[in-house]
Amino acid sequence: MIDKKFRVLSLDGGGIRGIFPAVILTEIEKELKSKKIENWQIYQNIDLIFGTSTGGILALALSLGIPAEEIKNLYFDNAKKIFGDKKGFFKCIHHSSHDRTSLKSLLEEVFKKFHNSSVPKLKDCKVAVGVSIYDLSIGKPSVLKSRYHDRFTRDPNLPLLDAALSTSSAPTYFDPYSGDMYKDLKGDVLQFKNKVDGGVWANNPSLIALIEAQKAFKKDLININLLSIGTGERIFLEPSRENKFGIWYWINNKRKRIIELFMQGQSQQVENIISLLKNGIDRQEPDNFSYLRLNTLFRTEAENIEMDETVKKRLEELETRALEVYKDNKIQIFKLLNIDLQEI
Questions:
Q1: Distance (Å, whole) CA 160 – CA 96
Q2: Average pLDDT of the segment spanning 246-258
Q3: pLDDT single digits (tens) 140-155
Q4: pLDDT digit string (tens) for 7-27?
Q5: Do residues 133 and 167 lie in contact, with contact meaning Cβ atoms separated by under 8 Å?
Q6: What sign does the dihedral 286-288-292-293 (CA atoms) show?
Q7: Rounded Cα gap, residues 243 and 258, in angstroms
Q8: What is the pLDDT of residue 238?
Q9: Structural contact between residues 281 and 272, judged by C-beta atoms closer than 8 angstroms
Q10: Which of 292, 259, 314, 234 minimizes the C-alpha distance to 24?
Q11: How far is 10 from 202, CA to CA, in rounded Å?
Q12: Mean pLDDT over all residues of the chain?
């Protein structure tokens, strides 16, 4: 019998590489379903979900009760619709690389499909959820949250579609997102303008989710199980390059290294901090809480998968990596979910 702990799921940003966590979460749901478990969906086995960018889209979908496989298939089947209109370098001087029309239409369709043909709001989520954004209208980072605390009155009436398109508006990939005005729970009319992907400050939202579990849910660290899933990372090594680190190196129409570096650097540092919280300096302390980080490493330029990749073969390679990671960590994953597969 596994002791019941407060279960937190954190999902990184990474564009189309959201296929990686989507595949792992799909396999979890398939396993539970195959065992004839009535509550086989992710939202029924997690107490709090936090996500950023593509992880934010996935977090919102899961919290609404959408199976992970729906989002996995949405990405696989529509990668070219979402990222296939990539503009050339000169157009990108004044415009973002991609138009979000297809992504908006696809998300609106899937959200309505699982909410009686109407667009759901954050208050309709079936489990506590938060997604990170950066608010250009006030110049501050922010987290859009469902109402899992009585003080959270700003966001519950915000349409899920607006939240999803905001958290996934990565600079240079998509324009900042603006939606319609809406009323908060106090009755005040709020504008929703110029929101940017939370990956600029919280591409890995694990630390925010951990603090939220402690402060909003009053959980001690020892009683928290944290499952954090990345979208793949590339080793940034240039030991022999002495110059030519200009604009073309850092950002061009083929690869946006500066965006990747900022997002990956933040994500890696969060891993370091959580490791420090979990086991202290040099891992000298016993576990202060249960934590599992799932990710994959692109060791070479040839292995690297861009955030706006559209080639199906490359996406299938990412799926294969995800299946391997799931298989290698399966027992520990279910332990974090308070599930003993041997007892089922």
A1: 23
A2: 72
A3: 999 999 999 999 999 9
A4: 999 999 999 999 999 999 999
A5: yes
A6: negative
A7: 16
A8: 65
A9: no
A10: 292
A11: 11
A12: 92
307-339 pLDDT, tens digit each: 999 999 999 999 999 999 999 999 999 999 999
And the tokens for 200?
A: 């600029």
Longest dimension (CA), the chain: 60
204-227 pLDDT per residue, tens: 999 999 999 999 999 999 999 999
Residue 106 region, left (φ>0) first, then alpha (ψ -120 to 50), else beta?
alpha
> What is the SS3 assignment for the chain?
CCCCCEEEEEECCCHHHHHHHHHHHHHHHHHHHHCCCCCCCHHHCCCEEEEECHHHHHHHHHHHCCCHHHHHHHHHHHHHHHHCCCCCHHHHCCCCCCCCHHHHHHHHHHHHHCCCCCCCEHHHCCCEEEEEEEECCCCEEEEEECCCCCCCCCCCCCEHHHHHHHHCCCCCCCCCEEEEEEECCCCCEEEEEEEEECHHHHCCCHHHHHHHHHHCCCCCHHHEEEEEECCCEECCCCCCCCCCCCHHHHCCCCCCHHHHHHHHHHHHHHHHHHHHHHHCHHHCCCCCCEEEEECCEECCCCCCCCCCCCCHHHHHHHHHHHHHHHHHHHHHHHHHCCCCHHHC
Mean pLDDT of 28-43: 96
